[in-house]
Write a structure and sequence with these properties.
Largest sheet: 8 strands, mixed
Order of helices and strands: HHHEHEHHEEHEHHEHHEHHHE
Structural class: alpha/beta
Shape: globular
Bound molecules: S-adenosylmethionine
Distance between the termini: 39 Å
Radius of gyration: 21 Å
Strand content: 15-25%
Length: 359
Amino acid sequence: MRGEGYYSERTAGARNVINDAGAMVFDAIRDLPPTNTLRLADFGAADGGTSQQMWDMVIRKCRETDDERQIEMIYTDLASNDFSTLFRMMQGMQGDPTHAYQNHFENVFVHGCGTGFHKQLMTSESLHLGFSATAMHYVSAKPMEIPNHVHAVCADVGSKAAFGEQAAIDWQNILLARAEELVPGGRFICLNFGIDEEGRYLGNTGGKHMFDHFHKFWRAIRDDGSITKDEYERATFVQYYRTIEEFCAPFMDPDSHVSRAGLVLKSSYTKLTKCPYEAAFKSAEGKMSNREYAENLIPTMRSWSETVFKTALRGRESSEINKIIDGFYQAYADEVAADPEGHAMDYVHIILDIEKTAS
Ligand SMILES: C[S@@+](CC[C@H](N)C(=O)[O-])C[C@H]1O[C@@H](n2cnc3c(N)ncnc32)[C@H](O)[C@@H]1O
């Protein structure tokens, strides 16, 4: 993710999805077995900005219901994450301080962990509630470069299978690590990008297909000689969108490693969240120009995708990389501005509520 708060400032949709899960998180905390303190974790939190309002709301509800337990909040992400921005935001030193909950409540202790979530990140049986939003579609390793597209979701059968295998291994590792960390009766709530029962996924919900557009403009700059064939192929998202069946599979088999580690699935469902930028454009009823809409929509796509395309150009001067990447997103923005109909980034999540059994 781009740092310095760029990610959370441009991802209103991700924040809306998390805020909607606030009641579920609070109910799970209320249902925990009795504890003296509360240890919470937000896995793959980026700069923390998108979940800040939700955590502020959850902690407020705890305090309003006379839950005065000390709270330890652990934010996890990759070592490369901009944790400095995260810590500053929680203390109201950066960005909008409205939900800087460290300023609102006593006895809330914020920590960061820069190790990937495929591993165990905290001591055994010490975590009461884990939460993760829009992060576990990242696979731990790229099994291959996809030859004729940028994303596994649109790849050839062989490439898709290779990513699917990696994602299955990763999902098992993620779950086994959480099983180890959670106290008996602890919960893990995750909102993951995935494919719903109607085959819909991020940026492909009936209108223009976002990943096909990324690919179209990336291929165009290969075809006009701006980038090489190798650079074109290196732009492979290290991601896989699991179906709800793939998410649930480890829980369906009582003999799976995950079931034997004590995890049970309390609930699962899919959720479509409409693109807030498109909603604002439509409700403006002509008061927002097509160009303004394009300039709102493209940065939200850019906030999480840019790193893939920039990395594909490694070895070039950074000024040259920036020029190519600016041109790439500009081409997409120009197409949206010319005809916005169908261009949007709706989110599709698979929502899972998982419990570590008490025995
Ligand atoms: C799209 S952002 C989501 C951020 C935030 N949770 C939200 O919902 O807005 C995905 C985050 O997952 C992080 N991430 C990817 N792979 C990870 C891993 N193996 N371990 C921890 N974090 C990871 C990325 O660095 C990024 O910050």
